[in-house]
Amino acid sequence: MAQGQNLNADQLFEKINAAKDSKSLLKKHLTPEIFAATKDKVSKFKGTLADCIRSGCMNPDSGVGIYASDPDAYTTFAAVLDPVIKDYHNVTELNHPKPDFGDTSKLDFGDLDPSGDMIVSTRVRVGRSHASYGFPPVLTLEDRVEMEKNTVKCLAKLTGDLKGEYCPLTGMTKEKQAELTADHFLFNDSDRFLREAGGYNDWPTGRGIYFATNKKFLVWVNEEDHLRFISMQMGGNLGEVYTRLVKAIKELETSGLEFAKKDNLGYLTFCPSNLGTTLRASVHIKIPKLAADPEFKKFCDGLHIQARGIHGEHTESVGGVYDISNKRRLGLTEIEAVQEMRRGVEAVIKREKELSGK
Ligand code: ADP
Ligand code: CIR
User: Fold this and answer.
1) Phi-psi region of 261 (alpha: psi -120 to 50; beta: other; left: phi over 0)
2) 135 vs 81, 85, 94, 117, 132, CA distance in Å?
3) Is 207 found in the same domain as 76?
4) How far is ligand 2, taken at its centre, from the CA of residue 158, in Å?
5) H helices within the chain, ranges in order?
6) pLDDT of residue 240
7) Could you tell me if the CB of 283 is within 6 A of ligand 1?
8) Per-block average pLDDT, block size 10, for the chain (358 residues)?
9) Gap between the Cα atoms of 81 and 70, Å rounded
C-alpha cells in the first residue's frame, strides 16, 4: 500500500516543497502557479494531480517524480507534464515524429561485439497502453483482470517464432518468480517509486508474462505499463533483436488492440520518461575501466545514453557489468533511437579499450 495514499494535493505539495535537496523534475517544474492551476482538475479517467505527483512527493530523491494517472492526464495536467517531458527528453518543442522503424531488411548494424568479449546480452523494449483504460492509480481490480484477458486473447494470434505461452503471476511459485527475475526475464514488486504511484495495487492480480517458445520475445502484462514488448538474447546482435521486436509490434498492432497515442507525444506510457517511441535499447556490457572513470556520467550524457545497474533501474552494477541504453525516447523515430544507442555503445566499447590499453 502506498504511504501517501491518503494525502491530498496540498499536503503532497507541502512535502516536496519542504524537500530542499530534491533534484527531481517534479520539484523543478511544479511551481506554485502551475500547482494552483492544476490542483483541482480531474481527467476523463477520474485521475487527479495527487495521483500524478504522489510518488515524487513521497520520494523526493526521484529523478522524474511524476507519473500520468491515465492517457488523458497528458492533456489535463499538461501544464506540469509538458515541461517535465521537454526537460527529460532534452527537446525544446513537443513535436514527436510519426513512428518509423526503418527497413529492417536493410539495417546497417548487426552484432556490436563480434568478439563476444564485452557484451553479455542485448534487449530492446517498447511500452504500449490500452487506449480505453487509465493507468495504475485509477485502475480497479476488475479493470486489471479484464485488460489481462483482452491482452492474452491477442497474444495468442502471434505467429512463427513469436508464438508462445502466457504465464500469470497469480499461482506462480515464489521460487519460479525469483528464478525468472534473476535471469532478467521477469519483473517484481520491489520498486518503491512505482509502489507509491499505485503500480502494485492489487498485486499480483492481472499481471503476467508471455514467453515466445525460444524465450527471445516476451510481453510483460500490467507491470508499470499495461504492456511491454521485449526482444532479448545473449550476445551483441542488436540487428536480430531489433528486427524481432519490429515484427512483433507490427503483428500486435493489427491483433485487435488499440494503443493510447497523442499528437506530438507519440505512444503514451505511465511514466513521462517513456513516452514517444517508448523504446529502450540496452546492452549488458563489461566496462570496469570506463565505469571507474570519474568522467563516466559526463561521457554517457554527451552521447545521450544512460547507465543502469544490471537488475534494472535503481539497482547497482555487478562485476563491472552495466546496462547501457538510449536515454531519449521522444522527438526522434524508433530507428533513430536505436541508432543513438548503437553509436553510444560503439563509443563505450572504443573508450573501454583505450582505457585498458588495447
Ligand atoms: P525497462 O524499463 O526497460 O523494463 P529495467 O531497468 O526496469 O528496464 O529492467 C528490466 C529488466 O530487464 C531487468 O531485469 C534488467 O536486468 C533486464 N535487462 C535490461 N536490459 C537488459 C539486457 N541488455 N540484457 C539482459 N537483461 C536486461
Ligand atoms: C523516478 O522519478 O526516479 C522514478 N519515478 C522513475 C522514473 C523513470 N523510470 C521509469 O519510469 N521506469
Assistant:
1) beta
2) 15, 18, 22, 41, 10
3) no
4) 30
5) 9-18, 25-29, 32-38, 49-58, 73-76, 78-89, 141-155, 174-182, 192-196, 238-253, 288-292, 296-302, 334-355
6) 98
7) yes
8) 87 98 98 98 98 98 98 98 95 96 96 96 98 98 98 97 97 92 92 98 98 97 98 98 98 96 97 98 96 94 93 79 95 97 98 93
9) 12
188, 153, 243, 320: CA torsion to nearest 10: 10
Q: Which residues are paired to 231 by β-bridges?
A: 124, 217
Question: What's the confidence (pLDDT) of residue 1?
Answer: 64
* 147, amino acid identity: M
Give a yes or no: residue 96 inside a domain. Answer: no
Domain containing residue 73: CATH number: 1.10.135.10
Please state the domain count of the chain. Answer: 2
CB 221 within 8 A of CB 151: yes
Q: How many residues does the chain have?
A: 358
Q: Quick one: which H or E segment has residue 326?
A: strand 321-326
Say how far apart CA 269 and CA 329 lie, in whole Å. Answer: 11
Grid coordinates representing 213?
A: 517458445
- The x, y and z cell numbers of residue 192, run together, are 518503491
Q: Residue 42: which of 14, 66, 13, 72 has the closest Cα?
A: 72
Atom of ligand 1 nearest to the CA of 282: 23
Q: What is the pLDDT of residue 321?
A: 94
Asked if residues 341 and 327 have their Cβ atoms less than 8 Å apart, the reply is no
CA–centroid distance, residue 353 to ligand 2 (Å): 32
Q: Measured in angstroms, how far is the CA atom of residue 45 from the centroid of ligand 2? A: 22
CA atoms within 13 A on the CB side of 209: 21
Task: Show the domain range for 46.
Answer: 9-89
Q: What is the pLDDT of residue 318?
A: 83
86 lines ligand 1 (CB under 6 A): no
